[in-house]
From TrEMBL:
It is a multi-pass membrane protein. It comes from Listeria aquatica FSL S10-1188. The chain crosses the membrane at residues 20-40, 46-65, 77-97, 117-136, 143-161, 167-186, 193-213, 219-241. InterPro entries: Glu_permease_IIB (IPR036878), PTrfase_EIIB_Cys (IPR018113), PTS_EIIC (IPR003352), PTS_EIIC_1 (IPR013013), PTS_Glucose_EIICBA (IPR050429), PTS_IIB_1 (IPR001996). One of its GO terms (cellular component) is plasma membrane. PROSITE patterns: PTS_EIIB_TYPE_1, PTS_EIIB_TYPE_1_CYS, PTS_EIIC_TYPE_1. This is PTS system N-acetyl glucosamine specific transporter subunits IIABC. It is found in: Cell membrane. The active site is at C313. Residues 1-253 form the PTS EIIC type-1 domain. It holds the Pfam family PTS_EIIB. GO terms for molecular function: kinase activity; protein-N(PI)-phosphohistidine-sugar phosphotransferase activity; protein-phosphocysteine-sugar phosphotransferase activity. SUPFAM superfamilies: Glucose permease domain IIB.
Amino acid sequence: MTKKIFGNQEFLDGKHVAIIINAVLTLLLVVIFGAAWPTIQNGLDALNGWITSAGAFGSAIYGILNRALIPTGLHHVLNTYLWFGYGDFVDAAGQMVHGDINRFFAGDPTAGTFQVGFFPVMMFGLPGAAFAMYLAAKKKNRAEVGGMMLSLAVTAFLTGITEPIEFTFMFIAPFLYAIHAILMGVSMFVTNLLGIKLGFTFSAGAIDFVLNFTKGHNAWQLIPIGLVFAVIYFVLFYFIIKKFNLKTPGREDETEESLAMEMPNAEVQESAASLGATEADLPNGKVDKYEQMARGYLGGLGGEDNLVKVDNCTTRLRLQVKDADLMNEAALKKSGARGVVKINKENVQIIVGADVEFVADKMRDITGK
């Protein structure tokens, strides 16, 4: 029922009031952030300047901040300055280039400082963590967890896409994620202290390692360093998970497991029935993998009616929903989600992995959204 707030001032009542309040609050925020931003920008400039002038220690701080800021997306603020703005170099054609990435590929022998430390962690460290989570899972769940972790580890090793692994423990075990951020800093410190140089076009995976190997300096040393990091990650993750009984994949309580097993199937069947699908078309029937995942996600999101819009990036489904409180996180994870992020009441993100575009396409086909 629409209520009047401003008496007889009809234009200011009912649904109009939300628009007016929103406009006023937006103007207020513009003033606040407009006044505060110069100070914030000066702080960022000072931080970037310190990082670039502090040698190996500065690169270590960058590595820690890069991982620590991923949950907020603010790591791109540091990346943009260091990768595309820091430093100057004149290439063979006489053109001035800027940024650690651009200078590396232009032939600057000093470039690669803020890229090289990612390789040991992304190619070796996080796959070691994935293996630890597999062995730490309950025996009855290891087959399922093993398939998931193997695909995530191979993806991280080959392409440097690590978010699917990171989101499996980022929110359920923040302490582990803090250790991961520190280890990234250690990797940055060690590789820069040894004077190793290597860059990437996409991310710090084996593909970029091989393609850019000849452009780097002492890049072969990243392999033994990476193997050491694989052992460190495995040992730390395995014993911390077991010691503190962290609920990493496959270690959920029985009530959580049963809920995750029951909810998706019920919702998937309801979703399929609404589309006129038969039992043979349901998961475990003739449906393909991506349709099964799509239907499972729809069920975990509270059904098709709760979905407003489907979008995706490299590894995530970016979804607009009517009510995020209807989301069942356990059901989503049982359907294959590596992680779930609730942005606000109407926006959620599901960490899927490199196959995300195929799942998104199926969700659009099913819902028309």
